[in-house]
């Protein structure tokens, strides 16, 4: 089946993960939201899934998604066999937006929801990002006010246990730090910067930061955890006879 080609204004959200029940079946999910001029409307998105092994796009029907996502601001994290995004609901009677996490199970192809800690529920979704901290789901919430430019890192220590959300630390955004990109094995935090266009490594214990001499726009940096594997993305799986450590 070919890709959906919307005729009206639209936005895309993507997710990528592996079916842990099969271990050699990778899937790409694509959500297509229709827009009214520049605003995403309330219609549920179209859903398509691409299977790496077969090379075929498949449209998913009969699945209702109640939540929306922000254009150009979405991030994803793959943990426990599911892709996770930051999503939001519009609260009735002028109640603003309610932010949450929307997971998608790669094996079952089912969407769900995970509530955020109370401190983050009212944060607008453009000021939230989702990523992995070690093997756990993590949320970064930003404050961008005149007297408080900072971010907080929250970690879900037990998957899907709301009470296990724990604030790891709060970081003042100094030295032109703009956005958390990821976390290093030594405990330092990777930040993109706005004006100097450099990737820096920040030590939350000492408060020191170090430029890594990696240049780029602050929106262009991306860090992803990986696991070494001999699984091939296409074709039959094989084990290499000569492996160099």
TrEMBL record:
Domain of life: Eukaryota
Residue span, F-box associated beta-propeller type domain: 5-209
Pfam families documented for this protein: FBA_1
Designated name of the protein: F-box associated beta-propeller type 1 domain-containing protein
Species assigned in the record: Solanum tuberosum (Potato)
InterPro entries for this protein: F-box-assoc_dom_typ1, F-box-assoc_interact_dom, SCF_F-box_component
């Amino acid at each position: 089946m070919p890709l959906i080609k919307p005729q009206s204004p639209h936005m895309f959200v993507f997710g990528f993960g592996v079916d842990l029940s099969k271990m050699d079946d990778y899937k790409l999910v694509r959500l297509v939201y229709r827009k009214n001029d520049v605003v995403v409307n309330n219609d549920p998105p179209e859903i398509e899934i691409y299977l790496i092994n077969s090379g075929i796009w498949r449209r998913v029907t009969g699945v209702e998604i109640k939540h929306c996502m922000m254009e150009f601001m979405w991030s994803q994290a793959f943990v426990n066999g599911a892709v996770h995004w930051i999503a939001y609901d519009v609260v009735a009677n002028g109640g603003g937006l309610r932010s949450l996490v929307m997971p998608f199970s790669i094996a079952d192809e089912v969407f769900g929801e995970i509530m955020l800690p109370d401190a983050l529920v009212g944060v607008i979704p453009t000021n939230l990002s989702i990523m992995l901290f070690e093997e756990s789901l993590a949320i970064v919430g930003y404050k961008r006010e005149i007297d408080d430019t900072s971010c907080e890192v929250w970690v879900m220590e037990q998957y899907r246990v709301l009470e296990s959300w724990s604030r790891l630390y709060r970081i003042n955004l100094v030295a032109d730090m703009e956005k958390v990109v990821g976390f290093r094995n030594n405990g330092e935090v990777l930040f993109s910067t706005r004006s100097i266009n450099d990737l820096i490594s920040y030590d939350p214990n000492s408060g020191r930061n170090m430029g890594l001499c990696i240049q780029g726009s602050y929106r262009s940096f991306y860090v992803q955890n990986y696991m070494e594997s001999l699984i091939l993305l296409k074709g039959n799986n094989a084990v290499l006879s000569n492996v160099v450590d």
